[in-house]
Amino acid sequence: MLHHIVLFRFHDHIDADTIAMVHAEFAALVAATGLIRDFRHGPDCSPEGLAQGFTHGWLLQFAGSAERDAYLVHPAHQQFVAMVQPLLAAALVFDFIDPASTL
């Protein structure tokens, strides 16, 4: 199982309705690509104060690297990236393979 973590830091002027639209468009990629095994999302709620301005996170799970790689070049994902980039001050993407899921 490959875990794909995405964190967004939106520009200060981006409102809650726009963020909700981004989430809806992101969630639509599950059906549009057929490659995502699990999709979760939420705003930062950590009391530690270490989020560095990242306010929203997504966790996508793929069967493996091949599915993730196909997702990255999928036209629906590319369209989403083009739509969301102007709204972001920063994005962070981090992938890892869970060793426990390969046992």
TrEMBL record:
Q: Which PROSITE patterns match?
A: S_R_A_B_BARREL
Domain Stress-response A/B barrel residue range list: 2-96
Report the source organism. Vogesella amnigena
Family matches, as InterPro entries: Dabb (IPR013097), Dimeric_a/b-barrel (IPR011008), HS1/DABB1-like (IPR044662)
Q: Name a Pfam family for this protein.
A: Dabb
> Would you say which domain of life the source belongs to?
Bacteria
Its recorded name reads Dabb family protein
Please name the SMART domains in this protein's record. Answer: Dabb
Q: Gene3D superfamilies annotated for this entry?
A: 3.30.70.100
Q: How does it assemble?
A: Homodimer.
